[in-house]
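Look over this one:
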Amino acid sequence: MKLESGGYELGPDLPADEPTREALSLLIENTCLFSDLLLRLPEQLTGRLAARRDWELVYRWSLGLVRDLTFLEGATLRLLHLAAQEVGLVKRDPDYRNPYRTERKPQKRFEEPPPVVKKVKKKVKRGPKMSHVEL
C-alpha cells in the first residue's frame, strides 16, 4: 500500500510527497463515505462485512487509522466515532442509538388468528314503493 511504502507516520501534518498525500486523502474520503453508508444502511452493510472477513479487516484498519489523525475535526470525528461504535471497534456509549436501524420485535411462533368479524345485514324498510311505470 502506498501509505505503508511511503513511510507515512501519523502526525499533525499531511505527508510531504504527493503520492502519499493522495493515498491518504483517498483513504480518508473512502472511509468517511463507507462510514456514512454503514450508519444509514446498518443491516445490509454489517451483514456484508460479516460475510467478507477481509473487507471487515480493511475497514477496521482504515477506520482506526483515520480516527487517529489529528487534523480532522467536528462532524467528521463524530461520524467516525459513531461508525466505530456500530461495528464494535469501540465500546458503545449508553445513549448510543442508530435511528436508521430498525428494531425488530420478536415474532410469536404461533399467533392467535384475528377474531372473525360477522357481516351486518342491512334491514330493508317495508312499505309502499314506487313502480317503474310511474317514472
User: Anything to note?
Assistant: The CA atoms of residues 124 and 130 lie 15 Å apart. The helical segments are 2-5, 18-40, 42-51, 53-67, 75-87.
